[in-house]
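S1.2 Input.
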Amino acid sequence: MKYSIQINSSPYQSNSAETAYQFIKSAIEMGHEIIRVFFYQEGVYHAFRYATPPDDEVQIVTRWSALAKEYDIDLVVCISAAQRRGLLETNEARRQGKVDNDVADGFRIAGLGLWVEAMLEADRFIEFG
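S1.3 Output.
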C-alpha cells in the first residue's frame, strides 16, 4: 500500500509527530511505500536545521533527516508555511537579502502542488496533528 503523510503540529506541541514517525517506520518495515511526508502549518518546525533540543531529549530534526536518507523518503515543507515562520532555503534567503539556509538535511521546500500529487499517487492519506 502507498501512503502520503501530512504533519501539522510542531515537534513539541504534541506527540502526534512522534506517532507519525513511528507509523512511517512500521509501514516501511511491513513493506508499504511512503510516497511523501508533507510538513504543513506548525509542522514546518521539524525542518529547522538549527533546532537544538537538550541532549537528553529526542533529536527530532536529526531523526527525520536520518529516516529520509535511510529509506529515500521525500520530506517536503510547505513553502508558504515555511516563509511565515522564517524557514528559508538558500535561494529564497538570497532573494530576501539573507545569507543562510535554515532547512535541515533531507527536507526540501515546495508548494502544495507536490502535496496534491502525492495524494493522487497514494492509496491512503493520513494527517497527523
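S1.4 Remarks. The helical segments are 16-29, 60-71, 79-84, 90-95, 112-121.
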